[in-house]
Amino acid sequence: MTAAVLGERRAVPPTPADLERWRAADALARPARLGRLRARMDAEGIDAYFGVRRENTRYLTGFALAEGEEKVAGVSGQFLISADEVVVLADSRYTLQARDECPDARIERVYNDFSERWPQLVSGLRPSASGNGQVRRIGVEAGFVAFATWKRLASAAPDVELVPIEGWVEEFRQTKEPAEFERVAAACSVADAALEALLPAIRPGVTEHELALQLEWEMRTNGAEALAFDVACLAGERAALPHGSPTSREVRAAEVLLFDFGAQVGGYRSDMTRTLFVGEPSRRDLDVYQLVSEAQDAAISRLAAATQAGEHPTNRSVDAAARDVIAAAGHGEHFGHGLGHGIGLATHEAPSLGRLAPEAPLPSPTVFSVEPGVYLDGMTGVRIEDLVIFDPDTHRLERLTHFPREVTVVGA
Asked: 129, 144, 173 — which closes off a domain?
């Protein structure tokens, strides 16, 4: 058995022209994005929308915060949308950035006086393009606002009703524009090439930590502006941890080595998992790998048939296509998570594919992961994860992850 590799494929880092083209595409798409939200607001009787989620801020306003930066940014990047205006909040650290990234928005400087400024911010909004009336109902991204903040805002403007909103913008974000697909594909290319470059370093005696660090370096120096999430590198029995973190454990011969990782390019993420074999695989590990591969094939086949027919299968039916294969082999209880998740500005977003996912047709066009796994506690674990573009309306099904899925033996 030999290692299956990409043939010295190297990612081509995005150029400044690529980044500017993507930024321009977002700017052109933003009026339609705002239009969808305003139509929903009008239908639900909402006068204004208060958003705080970092990904929604970028999607609707263009203002970009790095992963985790919202924890120190205060209210900077939070926004209000009325019938005819977008207001972006920013303190002195972010006002220049906000003016540059949100040229069509009104920038309001707010720092530690947010609650005090809230009545003024609200009174400055118009509930309709005609300017009639006052803002009385504000939809708030309830899942991302602290209870204490909610109470302060409600007290500061008692005549304004705060209406909890969940999932509106996330629902819009699950269908993707061409420029969004381009960035997810570019992030996949960076991740593919990074794992290929790492293969010669995998050998008995190297630690999970060392391999995870080198894989991160390969992504960051070959086109990734950031990681999509922390690299998971799990050897042997630790591969039975679906979301484990690398440790100082050394890699040993005749065991599996699971990598779960992703790159970020132009704000959009990739996510892939590959389970490699260090030296000669055991029959048990090969059998588990073959089962997981067959389960993924079953899900992809279900999607391919739907794509050809122009049909929208339900989230649960695609999950069931893979899960039934694993259950028939006696490992149903060893596949505990869902089959997949959407990806884009966030690593995990709608749509969700799983047993508990909404029983609803998959949207189109969209991109999501297909990642069945089997985990045997204390022994081994295998997961294979690829991203696919799914668009039955144009009969398109495209796998964006290109690192080989065949059995790959390293360190032999």
From this structure: 173
Q: pLDDT tens, 156-211?
A: 999 999 999 999 999 999 999 999 999 999 999 999 999 999 999 999 999 999 99
Specify whether the CB–CB gap between 366 and 388 falls below 8 A.
Answer: no
Which residues span the domain enclosing 83?
A: 45-173
Q: How confident is the model at residue 6 (pLDDT cuts 50, 70, 90)?
A: very low
329 and 190, same domain (yes or no): yes
Residues 193 and 271 occupy one common structural domain: yes
194 and 279, same structural domain?
yes
* Residue 135: CA count within 13 A, CB half-sphere: 29
Which tokens in the block code for residue 380? 């081994």
pLDDT band at 297 (very low <50, low <70, confident <90, very high): very high
Residues above pLDDT 70, as percent of the chain: 96
The domain boundary, picked from 145, 173, 201, lies at 173
| Residue 70 three-state SS | helix
Tokens 């609200």 correspond to 122
Angle between helices 16-44 and 54-61 (to 10 degrees): 100
Residue 161: exposed, middle, or buried by beta-carbon count in 10 A (0-12, 13-18, 19+)?
Answer: middle
Tell whether 26 is covered by a domain: no
* Helix (H) or strand (E) run with residue 234 in it: strand 232-235
Record the pTM: 0.95
Place of tokens 């109902």: 137
Q: Are residues 187 and 157 part of one domain? A: no
Q: What is the DSSP string of 385-411?
A: BEEEEEEGGGTEEEE---S--S--EE-
Residue 336 lies in a domain: yes
State the number of CA atoms in the 13 A half-sphere of 244 facing the CB. 25
Please answer whether residues 357 and 318 qualify as being in contact, where contact means their C-beta atoms are separated by less than 8 angstroms.
Answer: no
CA separation for the pair 90, 92 (Å, rounded): 7
pLDDT at res. 3: 44
Q: How confident is the model at residue 127 (pLDDT cuts 50, 70, 90)?
A: confident
DSSP 8-state symbol, 371? -
Give domain status of residue 282, yes or no: yes
CATH of the domain at 87: 3.40.350.10
Task: Fill in the DSSP letter of residue 141.
Answer: E
Please give the tally of structural domains in the chain: 2
* pLDDT score, position 74: 95
Shared domain for 73 and 137, answered yes or no, is: yes
Residue 70 lies in a domain: yes
Phi-psi region of 389 (alpha: psi -120 to 50; beta: other; left: phi over 0): beta
